[in-house]
Amino acid sequence: MDITYVPVGDDIEIRRGTSDARTVVTIDLESFSGLVGDAETAPGLLYSDRVSCTAGSPMRFVRWEPALRAMFHGRPIYDPAAFELRSAGGDPLDPAASFTTSDDDAAMTEFLHSAGYLHVRGVFDADEIETMLEAAQRQQAAATPGDDRSWWGRNRSGDEVLSRVTHAGSDPDLRRLYDDHRLLDLVALSEFDLTARAGQADEGVMVLWKQPDMTEGLSDIPWHRDCGLGGHATMCPLLIATVCLPGGGPASGELRMLPGSWRYSSPSIATDDTDAPQRVPLEVQPGDVTLHYSDIAHVSCPPSGRGPFRTSLLLAFVPDVETHALSKQSYNSALHRSSDGHVDHLRDVLEAKPTR
Q1: Pick from 130, 129, 199: nearest CA to 170
Q2: Is the peptide bond between 237 and the residue preceding it cis, with omega within 30 degrees of 0?
Q3: DSSP-assigned states of every residue in 233-300
Q4: How buried is 253 (Cβ within 10 angstroms: 0-12 exposed, 13-18 middle, 19+ buried)?
Q5: What value does the mean pLDDT of the chain take?
Q6: Fewest CB within 10 A of the end CB: N or C in the chain?
Q7: Which domains are present in the chain?
Q8: What is the pLDDT of residues 56-66, one digit of tens each?
Q9: How far, in Å, CA of 134 to CA of 130, rounded?
């Protein structure tokens, strides 16, 4: 059946046929059911070639996703211009606030719930960070293009550059972080009962390197949510704990958040949108830990300085772990489209495809 969603004032009309459509996409029933059930997303379906665009722009399908989530799930669309970060009692909260492990647990829990992220300073000391950096360097040296365990791209000079290792838990110095009481105490601040997302011996830890002057690949990830390729219905609330090795500010490649957006359907935002209100940079230092829910809108900005550049360890905590319903793989496996390990921006993937 062909149907068209048409915005009429503040409402959406559903009309038979496609004569009123500016963009037409073709999708099978199973994938559409996944989209309705919040198990699939527009970017995930496009990356994995399970939806085709027969007229118009496939990026319009991506920009429609917040409205589709609002229609299918009653999840309100986040309005950055109108949102105000407040406590449960209505008191305003500073979206740039940071904490230490000695601060009040209730205050940190309330901030995490309201904002969807939490910045805790000085959790690990310099010797611990040095040990983790050495482990990250071992992972870096072992990674090879096309190993399905790493993300690659190219810089302005044409050099092949590693930006991420996805299966770093094989290193005991990294995997033992899942047993560190300081991290576990921070994760316990969540209102949800979460467990480590660590299955096989090498899973559960990612290493991320910010690289300068990237022209190809997905090193500088645009505004996104971590469940943006699918799996929200089965994996979320997923909480990401990030251990900061070298710090992350504007010069080294910072992470920015849209406060409170994790409880909404987030709008599509251009990476270079300087008008996005309350986009909060996390000014992290070595040894800091940040937490964020996977459904929050955030962006990984390119470095503007000469280094050292941001290096981070990422650990995930979930209520339960399920694999992709169709492929029995991670939803993010759709990113590995190329045998050389290059992970491309969705825009570049779609530009390479003719409209069918």
Answers
A1: 199
A2: yes
A3: HHHPSPEEEEEESS-BSTTT--EEE-TTGGGSBPPP--TT-TT-TT-EEE-B-TT-EEEEETTS-EEE
A4: buried
A5: 87
A6: N
A7: 3-73 (no CATH), 99-345 (2.60.120.620)
A8: 888 899 889 99
A9: 6
